[in-house]
Design brief:
The chain has helices at residues 22-48, 71-84, 91-102, 108-120, 122-132, 134-144, 149-180, 183-210, 224-236, 244-254, 259-292, 295-323, 326-348. The protein has 13 helices and no strands.
């Protein structure tokens, strides 16, 4: 049982903490946290350096203008992204609302750079999941090499679930950003997602009353058709405010997974999907981010997102096992009501 952020790290698994003195335990835990942050830092730095460097390896920001992202902004964005990325409440929707609330991006080019960063900031959350679920990631790697049958089946399911988004995502990216990156579309998606979550919880409860043992416990045992169905549902989450995590967890319910296992598959699928999305934005919008954003705040946002995502992931698995999705559905309804009220007040003014 993982009891802290870094308990899932591979270089800590064989240590028998129970036989060590308390002072040694505390030092080891500090070492583990520093190791986690160090790995996260160099991962994010490795992703960001190609974008924010030129021939002389220096950061580009026009001296005649201020960066559209300062350290305070990055801290806020990082916390919002990390906490909401793997919760079924829509991280992109929350980041869009946060950006509008902060109100710093008025020019079209600056808006585009910030919108791209709201995807790239997922790099920290990606690494958090990779470290926490390193055993599954390692098994999938071995499986792809033909060395682990279970890992091969799990990798097959993750890749099948990724295919629909990979196929249609690049074609819809620009339309989604132009038409749906606003408060009203987010509020509509929050309400629609809440209704779906209530329906999914009723379905799960009825199924478990009929068959208390019923759901599959191994993600590698899931049928390929079930994995592909989850992938199709993930495409719906391209509408900001819907939540990729919510759609994939609901998809897990539909194919017979219990809440904790549905969440774990959502995390592993997110590892691939978010990496692809962040990489795509880095390649296609890197120039805009270089022009309007400084490297320091970009890195800080990703680091904060990684640490807060690790905390959120470990909490979510236990919470879903005990309580399910209902609390998040009510949260979405309340947030949507607040957004509609604010839009109404703006129209009156």
């Amino acid at each position: 049982m993982v009891t802290s952020i870094t308990d899932g790290l591979p270089f800590c698994q064989d240590l028998q903490f129970s036989i060590l003195p308390r002072k040694v335990k505390s030092r080891l835990k500090l070492y583990r946290m520093r190791s986690f942050l160090g790995i996260l830092f160099f991962f994010v730095l490795g992703m960001a350096t190609p974008v924010f460097s030129v021939e002389n390896n220096s950061t580009i920001v026009n001296s005649d203008q201020h960066s559209a992202l300062d350290y305070g902004d990055a801290l806020v964005y990082g916390l919002v992204e990390g906490i909401t990325e793997f919760l079924p409440v829509s991280s992109t929707g929350h980041l869009i609302l946060t950006k509008e609330w902060m109100g710093k991006a008025n020019e079209e080019e600056v808006q585009s750079a910030l919108n791209a960063y709201l995807i790239v900031i997922q790099a920290g959350a990606i690494l958090a999941v990779a470290l926490l679920y390193w055993r599954d990631v390692w098994a999938m790697g071995l499986g792809l090499l033909g060395l682990d049958p279970r890992g091969r089946a799990l990798a097959r399911n993750v890749l099948l679930a990724f295919l629909p988004a990979a196929a249609i995502g690049p074609f819809l990216d620009e339309i989604i950003e132009q038409k749906l990156f606003g408060a009203l579309p987010v509020a509509i998606a929050l309400l629609g997602g809440a209704a779906l979550m209530f329906a999914a919880e009723r379905m799960r409860a009825n199924r478990e009353r009929v068959d208390a043992s019923g759901a599959s416990t191994e993600l590698s045992n899931m049928r390929p058709a079930g994995a592909f169905l989850i992938g199709l549902l993930q495409c719906v989450a391209m509408w900001p405010g819907t939540s990729r995590s919510m759609m994939t967890i609901v998809g897990g319910y539909l194919v017979g997974l219990r809440p904790a296992k549905a969440a774990e598959f959502s995390f592993l699928l997110g590892l691939v999907t978010l990496t692809a999305a962040a990489g795509y934005k880095t390649v296609t919008r890197g120039g805009e981010m270089v022009e309007h954003l400084e490297l320091g705040p970009v890195l800080l946002g990703c680091l904060v997102a990684g640490v807060s995502a690790a905390l959120a992931v470990r909490w979510l698995v236990g919470f879903l096992s005990r309580r399910g999705l209902a609390l998040f559905a009510w949260y979405r309804i309340v947030l949507a009501a607040v957004i509609f009220a604010m839009i109404g007040m703006d129209m009156l003014v």
